[in-house]
Design goal:
49% of the residues are buried. It contains 16 helices and eight strands. It has an eight-stranded mixed sheet with strand order 3-2-1-4-5-6-7-8, sandwiched between helices. The chain is globular, with a radius of gyration of 20 Å. With 344 residues, the protein is of the alpha/beta class. The chain has two domains: 3-193, NAD(P)-binding Rossmann-like Domain (Rossmann fold), CATH 3.40.50; 195-336, N-(1-d-carboxylethyl)-l-norvaline Dehydrogenase, domain 2, CATH 1.10.1040.10.
């Protein structure tokens, strides 16, 4: 093993899968778990039966149910990276409450990497600003943000996967890329934090839309139109946030959008499929434990678009379906009745 110890906060599907990648290069990976059933299944059976049923986890991935247990595991040991697998809505309150635990590690100049793909519905902030608000400004360089086309189940299965990580300095980016590099998983770096985060966030509502159109019986033509016009809407948000256009054509933009609008493992797409079958949004959300980040991100993106006067017909139409009770078919018909214009 090249590295000593890693901490991963959050044992959802993606957090668990990234922990499994870290286990290839680290002596120990400590996974902070919230739920006792997830904890027991990983501890006793080396399987996350709630989020990744049937997927065997490595022996050096060790769950911790509470902070005292985690502290006992890492006492006197060198921790070299911290990963946050929490969804965007949980970031502010969770890390404000546990801020003092993390600051000593940040002082040791280790990377702190967020996997969140969303926009905070309370503040309309992206994950970078959430973390910068919570922690002292001198630690801004520590924070990195990972995104890209990566289904958790396929990562566990060791399918070849490329993702992107964004940060402020080469020091932390290079350190983290070496920690994650395996024969099936590769991380590419960018300095465009806003572009990476916008791509990762906005592809989730578009994946819901992809599920809706598929559930309604539309096929390849419609999906191709959704993907290409979806990228246009991403670019409009990117312009407001001074993001690089190229980022939206890379792994965290086009790459992740293609994956989630076409792949059967997308939670957001599955959510859209169920909406097309007549289920209510909150009914679906409340019936499962898996996070559908696109649901809240749609509302946040809609509010951002209003604030900055961004033309986002797809996001606006999806908002009408999710929050105003409009039927998907009605929204699609309305979009098709809009006057034709020059493509931009």
């Amino acid at each position: 093993m090249s590295f000593e110890n890693a901490i991963v906060i959050g044992a959802g599907a993606f957090g668990t899968s990234i922990a499994s990648v870290l286990s290839k290069n680290f002596k120990n990976v400590y996974l902070k778990v919230r739920s006792s059933d997830v904890y027991e299944s990983i501890k006793n059976h080396k399987e996350n039966t709630v989020y990744l049923k049937g997927q065997k986890l490595p022996d050096n991935l060790v769950p911790a149910l509470d902070w005292d247990e985690l502290k006992s595991f890492i006492e006197g040991k060198k921790v070299e990276v911290i990963i946050s697998g929490l969804p965007t809505p949980a970031i502010r309150h969770y890390f404000q409450d546990n801020r003092d635990f993390f600051i000593p590690f940040l002082e040791q100049e280790i990377p702190f990497v967020s996997l969140a793909k969303g926009i905070d519905t309370e503040t309309l902030e992206l994950p970078d600003d959430l973390f910068y608000d919570i922690f002292p400004q001198r630690f801004k360089d520590n924070f990195l943000f990972l995104s890209g086309p990566s289904f958790a189940q396929e990562i566990i299965d060791e399918q070849v996967t490329l993702v992107s990580v964004a940060g402020r300095t080469p020091k932390f980016l290079n350190k983290f890329m070496s920690m994650m590099h395996t024969d099936y998983f590769k991380v590419l770096a960018t300095y465009d934090i806003k572009g990476l985060l916008l791509g990762g966030a906005l592809k989730n509502p578009l994946a819901i839309a992809a599920g809706i159109i598929e559930g309604l019986g539309y096929n390849h033509n419609t999906r191709a139109a959704l993907i290409t016009r979806g990228i246009v809407e991403m670019l409009r948000f990117g312009k407001v946030f001074n993001a690089r256009p190229e980022t939206f054509y890379g792994l965290s933009g086009m790459g992740d959008l293609i994956l989630t609008t076409t792949g059967g493992l997308s939670r957001n797409k599955q959510f859209g499929l169920e909406l097309a079958n007549g289920r209510e949004p909150l009914e679906i959300i409340q019936s499962q434990r898996k996070t559908v980040e696109g649901y809240k991100t749609t509302k946040a993106a809609y509010e951002l678009a209003k604030r900055y006067d961004i033309n986002t017909r797809i996001i606006h139409g999806l908002y009408e379906v999710l929050y105003n009770g409009h039927s998907p078919k009605e929204v699609i018909t309305g979009l098709m009745k809009l006057p034709s214009t020059f493509e931009d």
